[in-house]
Amino acid sequence: MSKTPETGAGTTPHGTASGGTHGTTPGAAASGTSPGGPHDVVSGGAYDTSSGGTHGTSPVGAPGFTHIDETGAARMVDVSEKGVSLRTATATGKVLLSREAVALLRSGEVPKGDAIGTARIAGIMGAKRTPDLIPLCHPIALHGVKVELDVFDDGVEITARVKTADRTGVEMEALTSVSVAALALIDMVKAVDPAAVITDVRVEEKTGGKTGIWTRP
């Protein structure tokens, strides 16, 4: 994003196209981003096996797979033997918007209503409903969800921070929170900007579990 955020503080933009157009989309799209970071470390955190082994070992399931049983069927990993620890995850994403849509967000005159407030609540709800949307995600208790939306000249940056004290991580909850907030924002402004783009949804940091602290390089 370009320039100083209109709302919120402490958010660092990640170098997206400026000028409010959608011809340039930095990075990969939300559904295709595979930075290699969080996906490499979840084996020791969110998706470990019940025996405490590595991502490549499955004492019960098919060899080499943690979420497939001996018949090849998908299964939810048993994490009951893992210890409870404080776990957090932070994810970010962007919605690229036209200058007209950005101006309406800043003035609070979006025809459909409070777009920023609606998207924020949607993000919180999305985090809580993650196990209903992601088949193998454990339904754990969330102890904190914070969603921030910062308006820039070319769109909105969304940040979700999720916290729990449980046996598995909350990266998926943070990612789902950002994604649902972005979808809700587009729903609020689509009449003004039907070309809005969701991009760069990714994990920025995770803590807790065997891997401890991981931060995007």
UniProtKB/TrEMBL annotation:
Any GO BP annotation: Mo-molybdopterin cofactor biosynthetic process
Residues forming the catalytic site: D187
EC number: 4.6.1.17
CDD domains listed in its UniProt record: MoaC_PE
Pathway: Cofactor biosynthesis; molybdopterin biosynthesis
Keyword Protein biosynthesis: no
InterPro entries with a match to the protein in the record: MoaC (IPR023045), MoaC_bact/euk (IPR047594), MoaC_sf (IPR036522), MoCo_biosynth_MoaA/MoaC (IPR050105), Mopterin_CF_biosynth-C_dom (IPR002820)
SUPFAM superfamilies associated with the record: Molybdenum cofactor biosynthesis protein C, MoaC
Reactions accelerated catalytically: (8S)-3',8-cyclo-7,8-dihydroguanosine 5'-triphosphate = cyclic pyranopterin phosphate + diphosphate
One term of GO molecular function: cyclic pyranopterin monophosphate synthase activity
Region (Disordered): 1-67
UniProt entry keywords in alphabetical sequence: Lyase, Molybdenum cofactor biosynthesis
Primary role: Catalyzes the conversion of (8S)-3',8-cyclo-7,8-dihydroguanosine 5'-triphosphate to cyclic pyranopterin monophosphate (cPMP).
The family this protein is said to belong to: Belongs to the MoaC family.
Identification of the protein by name: Cyclic pyranopterin monophosphate synthase
Lineage of the organism: Bacteria, Bacillati, Actinomycetota, Actinomycetes, Streptosporangiales
Gene name linked to the record: moaC
